[in-house]
Amino acid sequence: KTELCKTLAEFLFDSEEHLIRIDMSEFMEKHSVARLIGAPPGYVGYEEGGYLTEQVRRKPYSVILFDEVEKAHPDVFNVLLQVLDDGRMTDGQGRTVDFKNTVIVMTSNLGSQMIQQMSGDDYQVIKLAVMGEVKTFFRPEFVNRIDEVVVFHALDQQHIGGIARIQLQGLEKRMARLEMGLTVSDAALALIAEAGFDPVFGARPLKRAIQERIENPLSKAILEGRFGARDRVFVDLVGGRIEFRSEPMAEAA
């Protein structure tokens, strides 16, 4: 879900830097509303502005991700109602912040256990069941202001390989800045996907698996001088282990 928001920010605004991610588990207390929109005059932190409002003021063209929105305090939802309805918010200093050029995405784990149990059912059946739980948790006026609800299928082994390939593109870009190339074999990718798959935690362990199995040993090899500029590094599976080798990159015609 987070990767989708990064891609959306890049597609709409040409850069992942236009993604504003807010972890709503940090806003579980009643007083946390002040952190979001800024403290009122006379209170500590008044000059700093709000965590959300200041970021939108600096980057008015953004994708805003409210991650795990169900964990926020009910007072936070009252603040969000104004944004979802009018496309604006009044911060702690009384200034109006314009949200009309933002795309707001809210993720939630409500119904995740239900999705796991109904993984073989039709998508519309799953969505209907999940929406029943969503409407039980959130107030009607909040749900009615949401334009579209997308229910994600539970990840399985076949999806992880594709996600691993996408995440490796970031490493490929970093190596390209060092004038190096990277090629990962299907066998090595399958091992990474297997190590990074967890039906409960989804794709999160995958990033750690890529870092431990590829990024860390590759970084060490580059620092030791085994690989350098104009090298293409090949990552393959040899005897059940990840191995690295390099060949000179072909000169551009």
What's this, in brief?
The protein contains ten helices and eight strands. With 253 residues, it is of the alpha/beta class.
Commentary on this structure:
This protein is an alpha/beta fold and 253 residues long. It folds into two domains: 107 residues, Rossmann fold; 92 residues, Helicase, Ruva Protein, domain 3 (Orthogonal Bundle), CATH 1.10.8.60. It contains ten helices and eight strands. A three-stranded parallel sheet has the order 1-2-5. Strands 6-7-8 form a three-stranded mixed sheet. It has a two-stranded antiparallel ribbon with strand order 3-4. α8 packs across α9. The longest helix has 21 residues. It is globular and about 60 Å long. It starts with a helix and ends in a 5-residue tail after the last strand.
CATH class of the largest domain: Alpha Beta
CATH architecture annotation of the largest domain:
3-Layer(aba) Sandwich
**Number of individual domains:** 2
Q: What's the CATH topology name of the largest domain?
A: Rossmann fold
* Global structural class: alpha/beta
Looking at this protein, list some descriptive labels.
Rossmann fold, single chain, 8 strands, Helicase, Ruva Protein, domain 3, 10 helices, 253 residues, 3-stranded mixed β-sheet, alpha/beta
Topology overview:
Layout: H1 2-13, E1 19-23, H2 32-37, H3 51-58, E2 62-67, H4 74-86, E3 88-90, E4 96-98, E5 102-106, H5 112-117, H6 123-137, H7 140-143, H8 157-177, E6 181-184, H9 186-195, H10 204-223, E7 231-238, E8 241-248
Parallel strand pairs: 1-2, 2-5, 6-7
Antiparallel strand pairs: 3-4, 7-8
Helix pairs in contact: 8-9, 8-10
